[in-house]
Automatic annotation (TrEMBL):
This is YbhB/YbcL family Raf kinase inhibitor-like protein. It comes from the Bacteria. InterPro entries: PEBP (IPR008914), PEBP-like_sf (IPR036610), YbhB_YbcL/LppC-like (IPR005247). Pfam families: PBP (PF01161).
Amino acid sequence: MPLTLTSPAFKRGKVIPIRHTRDGENLSPPLEWQDAPPEARSFMVLVEDPDAPSGTFRHWAMYNIPAGEVGLQEGASGQGPGRAEEGVNGFGNAYYDGPQPPKGHGPHHYHFRLAALDVPRLDVPASAKAEEIWTRAQPHIIAEAEVVGVYAR
């Protein structure tokens, strides 16, 4: 079976609860994955909003998630499992910043992307931006999955 990603906080294609947005508690939502390839040595999570007025906006990058993990608990940002690290998002922060589309801009689609990697660690500078980390991960991705949630203000 292929790698799958879900969130107990919201159904695929449905509204992301306010507690997981910058309008609420700004907590990263819980994520769960199944059927990771046995050769996966680590995982990476990236959250993107392709509907942002200035182009794709990255809200979170967590990488070097240990291979034995099968998910992230709610609020995992800042306290990720094992030696997981976080990249700098579009707001300039090295942690999860949830949805906050411009008021009246309509619904935005937030892509929570999971990549299973063939290396135990991505060696990137501590100040690396989310998009740079995703680019560095590309040659090491052996499986991907995503779950999309929606949010509007």
